[in-house]
Amino acid sequence: MGLRGARRGSGPDSAALGALKPARLSAIIRPRPTAPSAGRRPFALPHERAPDLSATPFSQLEAPAPSQKGLTGEERRRIFLRNANFSDNVDVRKNIATFGCDLSLIEFPEWQRTKHVHRLHPYLGKFIPQLVELFLRRFFGAGDTILDPFAGSGTTLVEAAALGINSLGIELSPFNCLIIAAKTRRHDLGLLRREVADAFRRVEDFTRSGAGDGLLPLGPKLGSFTTDSDYLRAWFAPLALQQLLFYRSIIPDYGNRDLLRVILSRTARSLRLIPHYDLARPKAPLRVGEQYYCVKHRRMCEPITDGLRFFRRYSRDTVSRIEEFDKLRSDAAVTILQGDARTTPLPEGVRLDGVFTSPPYVGMIDYHEQHRYAYELFPELERRDASEIGPMSLGKGKKAQRAYQADIAAVFRHIRPWLKPTAKLFVVANDTHGLYPAIGEMAGLRLVDTFHRPVPMRTERDTKTYFESIFWFELA
After folding, report:
1. Which CATH class, in words, describes the domain spanning 80-177+335-369+386-475?
2. Which of 72-86, 273-287, 422-436 has the lowest mean pLDDT?
3. SS3 letters for the chain?
């Protein structure tokens, strides 16, 4: 169907958008900065005495833990950066000799760790793209073909596309596959701008329909949408839920449906009735109007009830990120396979130069539940919780560890027929239980080397730094 005409209004956020028309979305889409704003003063942090860590391998270190109550994740990261003196560490020397850097990557601020499409949608458990880039540049080249059998949100596939490396990703979760497709698909940028702008204009008009504006065209009004989902009714304020359901109802009108679903899901994540600082692992919804002390904003806050500013922000941000990545990407092929990595076959004729992946960590993350809001909004996406490897529900005990080892080894045995004899397999893992050397043996792989790196503060409320291993396997 044709796109609706845009009109100036006096509703929420209309002053910020002005007379925006679908063809002029670029008026509010500004390129992301390549550096922090000039003249902007960084916040001051207390200086802590740096411990001497030079004689201890990363894998045996415990991260410094100064008092960090009330600090944001970015502030904790900067404290860690100041405190951790790794300059002469044994692992640092090895990493520098191999990669030219220490692999900590803690010098990258948050806006660089989530560059272009990597922040198209939040994802708990995503590894830093700079780590992927370092390994792909060091061990692979343009024209090679690699596989990520645990594709997650598509970090490996995105970085491979930027470097001219063909990639395949296997991913169990249908919603994750939707995110990967939105990131890696070639988009008609002109059509994308028009459709995203028009969808936002319509949700703005819908929101204004509750203000008694008699000049509005005929169409759905606030209160006209219902849902059978107990979760959606409990976790969203009435106005926010109406906006989400309306936006969902208009997605079939457009060609960029997957990308609009990502915008909707990202908006829904921010609109839940939860503290602003607890987006990653909220336990229960707050009441509408319930006040709490917000450690993110350092004042009393209330949960969000109106989502219009988030629809506007994420619409603009999504198009900006897609445009930015479109300038960087190559013509390398990207293939997404939705299924279980233990059994999903690769396309005929594929020969893999290597693997770069980060499997699920045993008993640490509920990979489907973290996106429950999306599965409730899109019931056509089937949850595959029962097929997860290392699910949180089974814990981290010995029985769970043995099952995890068998499942991960089964994945690598399954993909073996597609591996070239010289293939290199890199596995990023928080191997606190020492499971991966045995996994390699079970899969018929030879452990060539292991690299270690610290990983500080991965989520909004994560105060713990752990040490990650990158295992380098080859065929035995």
Report:
1. alpha beta
2. 72-86
3. CCCCCCCCCCCCCHHHHCCCCHHHHHHCCCCCCCCCCCCCCCCCCCCCCCCECCCCCHHHCCCCCCCCCCCCHHHHHHHHHHHCECCCCHHHHHHHHHHCCCCCCCCCCHHHHCCHHHHCCCCCCCCCHHHHHHHHHHHCCCCCEEEECCCCCCHHHHHHHHHCCEEEEEECCHHHHHHHHHHHCCCCHHHHHHHHHHHHHHHHHHHHHHHCCCCCCCCCCCCCCCCCCHHHHHHCCHHHHHHHHHHHHHHHHCCCHHHHHHHHHHHHHHHCCCCCCCCCCCCCCCCCCCCEEECCCCEEECCCCCCHHHHHHHHHHHHHHHHHHHHHCCCCCEEEEECCCCCCCCCCCCCEEEEEECCCCCCCCCCCHHHHHHHHHCCCCCCCHHHCCCCHHHCCCHHHHHHHHHHHHHHHHHHHHHEEEEEEEEEEECCCCCCHHHHHHHCCEEEEEEEEEEECCCCCCCCCCEEEEEEEEEEC
